[in-house]
Amino acid sequence: MLLKVVAIFVFLVVMTLLTIWAERRVIGRMQHRPGPNRAGPFGLLQSLADGLKLAFKEDIRPVLADKWVYFLAPVISATPALVSFSVIPIGPEVTIFGERTALQLVDLPVGLLVVLACASVGVYGIVLAGWASGSPYPLLGSLRSAAQVISYEIAMGLSFVAVIMYSGTLSTSGIVDAQTNGWFAFLLPFSFVVYVIAMVGETNRAPFDLPEAESELVGGFHTEYSSLKFALFFLAEYINMVTVSALATTLFLGGWHAPWPLSMIGDGVLNTGWWPVLWFLGKTLAFLFFFIWLRGTLPRLRYDQFMNLGWKVLVPCSLLWIIAVTVIRAVRNDEAVTTQQFLIGGAVVIAVLLVATFLIPDRRPEKDTDEVPLSGSGYPIPPLDLQVPEAPPRPTPVRSGAAGEVERAEGEEAPHGNV
């Protein structure tokens, strides 16, 4: 057990260094620039050099910061990220120094709940870091992160429900065993898509990196951190990337099982021994590349678009998907409807929904464009930057003398005040 604990810690730290290096190299290739290529062969030691540089930087604490909370926040953020990987099965049972053991630290009957609990605790570190810094911009970033994690944790938890229904267990190793004859990514495609979107939002990665939007928040919740405290936040983010990628592999891509053509070789000989570790790492690295690909491709969303996606799209659609999966399993168990009849009925329902969504014209009355636009509080919106307001009418000068007396005698009012 002690050997597995050390191995998991070393694995996560090394994966963090390699992921940072790969992110710089891959995005550099996408942007037609070399990326790090000086420290070590192909720049492989650049991440290690950056870590050593952070360790020797001056540790600064703001005057208004809460001392103990400011110190504990990075620890609270990094610790759950390390703990959540303990329930991930990396491979089957193997022999280590004569002892037969599974390549998993602990196989809990509620392993999925442990991952969700660790993700929930991790956000406290971010919130406390923003509050304890004594600065408004870190506080704004931490509040954004709290709303973001709550929103996308709900969608992530709902994506687990269909997997739990098909596997019949909350244990991660049991879910891997349930995918022996087929991956859940093909059997439950909508749950897979929802989880992939939710895991990007959960880890605060682009295009969902709103809590640390540099153009708006000067770095977000860790603006006032430096040295090893900042390194802990950085470590927690990349360890969370590795953990959610490994969890996606476990839930939807068969875990440590070999892909289909290779799984048929020699009656599954490639699913025994140490070979499964290779398949597990390959699938996890594919998800990590997906993270990097998104960062180099998509622009950052607005915060209202981000919240609308979570609450108005992912959560309602996930609830409908759970109902559909429940109906499908009930129909299959009762055998009241054949598979062909069920597929035809499902195609008809989808066609009707598409027609109702895209072909029926919108009959809502058009808004009057002459109305003065109002903000949410009821006050008129000020003119936009590119709109020049009309100039007020210029006052007419009043002539003095006899002519002015004649004009007033004809019925004009006398001017009040100076013109």
TrEMBL record:
It is found in: Cell membrane; Membrane. Its EC number is 7.1.1.-. This is NADH-quinone oxidoreductase subunit H. Residues 405-419 have a biased composition (Basic and acidic residues). Its main location: membrane. NCBIfam families: PRK06076.1-2, PRK06076.1-4. PROSITE patterns: COMPLEX1_ND1_1 (PS00667), COMPLEX1_ND1_2 (PS00668). NDH-1 is composed of 14 different subunits. Subunits NuoA, H, J, K, L, M, N constitute the membrane sector of the complex. Pfam families: NADHdh. Belongs to the complex I subunit 1 family. The keyword Cell membrane applies. Keywords: Cell membrane, Membrane, NAD, Oxidoreductase, Quinone, Translocase, Transmembrane, Transmembrane helix, Ubiquinone. One of its GO terms (molecular function) is NADH dehydrogenase (quinone) (non-electrogenic) activity. HAMAP family: NDH1_NuoH. NDH-1 shuttles electrons from NADH, via FMN and iron-sulfur (Fe-S) centers, to quinones in the respiratory chain. The immediate electron acceptor for the enzyme in this species is believed to be ubiquinone. Couples the redox reaction to proton translocation (for every two electrons transferred, four hydrogen ions are translocated across the cytoplasmic membrane), and thus conserves the redox energy in a proton gradient. This subunit may bind ubiquinone. The gene is nuoH.
